[in-house]
Amino acid sequence: MSIEAIASEKATPETVTQVHRWTDSLFSFKTTRPQGYRFTPGQYARLGLAADGGMLWRAYSITSAPDDDFLEYYGIVVPGGAFTTILKDIRPGDTIWTEKQSYGFMTADRFSDGEDLWMLATGTGLGPFISILRDPMVWEKFRHLILVHCVRHEEEFVYQEELAALKNHPPTAAPRAELQLVRSATRDTAAPSAHFGQRITALLENGALEKRVGFGLSEQSSRIMLCGNPEMIDDTRRILHQRGLRPCRRTLPGQFVTENYW
Ligand SMILES: Cc1cc2nc3c(=O)[nH]c(=O)nc-3n(C[C@H](O)[C@H](O)[C@H](O)COP(=O)(O)OP(=O)(O)OC[C@H]3O[C@@H](n4cnc5c(N)ncnc54)[C@H](O)[C@@H]3O)c2cc1C
Ligand SMILES: NC(=O)c1ccc[n+]([C@@H]2O[C@H](COP(=O)([O-])OP(=O)(O)OC[C@H]3O[C@@H](n4cnc5c(N)ncnc54)[C@H](OP(=O)(O)O)[C@@H]3O)[C@@H](O)[C@H]2O)c1
To answer: Which residues line ligand 1 (CB under 6 A)?
Structure first.
């Protein structure tokens, strides 16, 4: 049985339609969408690339909206990484295998109540929040949407134009929510101007994030999503626990959900 035949049992070959390069190591790409493919914003796809006579599979958060007729992803090139060493050279017309099923539990429908949705991302952990913000649902459900993106360098503040446009023109005729965009770049030598220069954890501990946003975290109002670097997620989880906030469990409602990228 060929590798393609084995892959086709669980995945479909999709065609790359567009590649956007943000920096030398950051890029977004679109593919055709498998027929009947369903996902909830916040979920991820499992993508496959042919490599050395076999297949490599990796998880990629979907950034496109649920009703787009394409799938979009946002990625980084990891130096020496098996998958991204191949993925970095993709061009329109190339094939990316896409598992038929979508995965993941970091979705806004995990929260049955709450007024403020905090989305805290490091690096490419921004991706699922792009999909969530392209979906009318959160704009109608919440009072405030707060997107915090923390990167090493300012040039990694991607999707800025679209986020600014979404803030002014939400994707629904009846928006309830206001969007606040908060950015932080931790490794630039120049003093930050419009954005912060500290980690999300530091901004939570020293109160600067809540001060900027204008209101605090609370068990009653805040629902929080954490995505990206697993150490950031562990450290933030500890801070949230100290504030009396708890993770959502299948049987127990909570205030936060997480997605580790490695
Ligand atoms: C649920 C889930 C969703 C994911 N979604 C995305 C996504 O939307 N975009 C994306 O670029 N990656 C995402 N990843 C990571 C992705 O699956 C691969 O790990 C990544 O593409 C690197 O693959 P690799 O084989 O080149 O290196 P790997 O051998 O897989 O990784 C090597 C090392 O690179 C670092 N690394 C891996 N991924 C990242 C990353 N995203 N940012 C910074 N450092 C990283 C880690 O230190 C890791 O140990 C996701 C992972 C998970 C588990
Ligand atoms: N970012 C780049 O310019 C770049 C370029 C080429 C290759 N890469 C490769 O990509 C990988 C890293 O990618 P990345 O920069 O997107 O991810 P990252 O290392 O997770 O950094 C993203 C942001 O998360 C912060 N962070 C890290 N650990 C944290 C913690 N425990 N608590 C709170 N915040 C934390 C970082 O702050 P600190 O800065 O304080 O750590 C940084 O602001 C590496 O393999 C790297 O070699 C990155």
So the answer is: 44, 58-61, 73-76, 78, 81-84, 123-124, 127, 259, 261-262
- What structural domains does the chain harbor? 3-99 (2.40.30.10), 108-260 (3.40.50.80)
Burial (0-12, 13-18, 19+ Cβ within 10 Å), 54: exposed
For the ranges 7-11, 93-97, 168-172, 241-245, the lowest mean pLDDT is seen at: 7-11
Ligand 2: atom nearest CA of 228 is 20
Task: Name the residue with the closest Cα to ligand 2, atom 10.
Answer: 78
Q: List the 44-51 sheet strands across, edge first.
A: 54-61, 44-51, 95-99, 11-21, 26-32, 70-76
pTM over 0.90: yes
pLDDT score at 1: 63
Give the span between the Cα atoms of 146 and 210, in whole angstroms.
Answer: 10
